[in-house]
């Protein structure tokens, strides 16, 4: 694919941005597009959730390689990482100096309870009991896309988190995204 892009770039200056974006350093064979959607599901008594078909379709590459399931850092939910996304995250984590105590403490807490999970032949993911307990998962859950991962919430907790954040979302959006100016022409 990079060879094809290089040929296209040779054809004119207007393709420089495409060359930058699609250069070998920015592309990997595990590149995953943003995951889209929010899905309501049920968990059975054994902690298994049936992956919704539209979500399963988006995660096709991950179905073969597997996933990593972990506790969220900021919310009472779980995070499902396609293995390629987890490996990218671990590259960042592994760059931390382990001889700095707070880095070591962070790594320990970030990876606490991490599990490798797979989708079984029936399209189900087993959520370990300790993670079910952490997220307060009952029978009804919400799978919510969070760019490149999927958050797994107890339905009531998800609705409360969304309702609680409505009042200050405009301020949060302005603070987080208001100064982002990544357009090539300098306009956003």
What can be said about this structure in brief?
Helices cover 41% and strands 20% of the residues. It is α+β, with helices and mostly antiparallel strands and 188 residues long.
What general outline do the C-alpha atoms trace? globular
Structural class: alpha+beta
Average pLDDT confidence is 79
Helix content: 40-55%
Strand order of the largest sheet: 1-7-8-4-3-5
Report how far the terminal alpha carbons are from each other: 29 Å
- What is the count of β-strands? 8
Give the uncertain stretches in residue-range form. Answer: 1-31
Contiguous helical run count: 9
Element-by-element helix/strand order: HHEEHHEEHHEEHEEHH
Describe it for me?
The chain has nine helices and eight strands. The protein is globular and about 40 Å long. With 188 residues, the chain is α+β, with helices and mostly antiparallel strands. The chain is 41% helix and 20% strand.
Which terms summarize this structure?
188 residues, alpha+beta, 9 helices, 8 strands, globular
């Amino acid at each position: 694919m990079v060879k094809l892009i290089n040929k296209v770039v040779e054809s004119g200056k207007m393709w420089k941005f495409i060359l930058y974006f699609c250069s070998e350093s920015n592309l990997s064979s595990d590149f995953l597009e943003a995951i889209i959607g929010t899905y309501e599901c049920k968990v059975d008594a054994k902690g298994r959730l049936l992956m919704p078909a539209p979500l399963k379709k988006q995660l096709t590459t991950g179905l073969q390689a597997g996933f990593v399931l972990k506790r969220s850092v900021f919310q009472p939910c779980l995070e499902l990482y396609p293995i390629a996304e987890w490996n990218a995250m671990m590259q960042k984590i592994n760059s931390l100096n382990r001889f700095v105590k707070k880095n070591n403490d962070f790594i320990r807490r970030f990876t606490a309870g991490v599990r490798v999970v797979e989708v079984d032949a029936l399209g189900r993911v087993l959520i370990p009991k300790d993670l079910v307990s952490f997220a307060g998962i009952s029978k009804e859950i919400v799978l919510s896309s969070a760019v490149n991962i999927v958050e797994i919430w107890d339905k009531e907790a998800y609705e409360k988190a969304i309702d609680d954040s409505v009042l200050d979302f405009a301020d949060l959006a302005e603070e987080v995204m208001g100064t982002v100016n990544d357009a090539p022409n300098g306009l956003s």
